[in-house]
Amino acid sequence: MGMEKPFSVAIDGPSGAGKSTIARASALRFGFIYVDTGAMYRTIGLAALRSGLGPHEQEGVRALLPGLRIDLRYGPSGEQRMFLGDEDVSALIRTQEVAMYASCVSSMPEVRAHLLEAQRSLARTHDVIMDGRDIATVVLPDADLKIFLTASAEKRAERRWEELRARGSEEEFGQVLREIVERDRQDEERAAAPLKIAEGAVVVDTSELSLKESVERVCALIEERLGGVRG
Predict the structure, then answer these.
(1) pLDDT tens, per residue, the chain with 231 residues
(2) Whether the Cβ atoms of residue 37 and residue 24 lie closer than 8 Å to each other
(3) CA-to-CA distance for 8 and 123, rounded, in angstroms?
(4) pTM value > 0.90
(5) Alpha carbon distances (Å) from 63 to 60, 106, 145, 158
């Protein structure tokens, strides 16, 4: 990279839009670091759940924060692994229950502040593709490229339901759809860094796109912007 300024891509969007999968594939193609900020919130959510706290017990969550050690580590092919202390919790944080906890704890300004500097530090030192709910609006407002990745609630629920079924879950489609709609409401209405389209962001709707087409669309945007910045 020499003395070149690190290049940053901020991808926001609602739950189930395919942000993580698309961001991970795009980062791999360009040799960038992929930062899944949602996984960081899920890790705090898992810690709260394990502590016997309810998802809305904010005082309890605040008390947990100073003692939490949350690490992002990267495997040989660049995949992000989440650690809570010395335990790899990458698979454990992917349940629907932990997702709801993550949505609740991520509405807390103290939790966001706790993770913010770690997220910004990665972007200062590496070429990154970072995804979440407030990356372009709060975490990396000066990102070189801002993308808002979305899809209809029904399409997102369908994808999530198929993913859950592949893992052996018996969850009903209607329940998955209700959870997606509720998660959207929580993310859009929260006081701290609500989900919204950042100024200057490119909106990519993946409702009618295959995963491959979605990745190609995002990579084309990165290629174009990267060419403009680095010539």
Answers:
(1) 445 889 999 999 998 899 989 999 999 999 999 998 989 999 999 999 999 999 899 999 999 999 999 988 887 777 789 999 999 999 999 988 999 899 899 889 999 999 998 899 989 999 999 999 899 999 999 999 999 999 999 999 999 899 889 988 888 999 999 999 998 998 888 887 888 999 999 999 999 999 999 999 999 999 999 988 876
(2) no
(3) 6
(4) no
(5) 5, 15, 36, 37
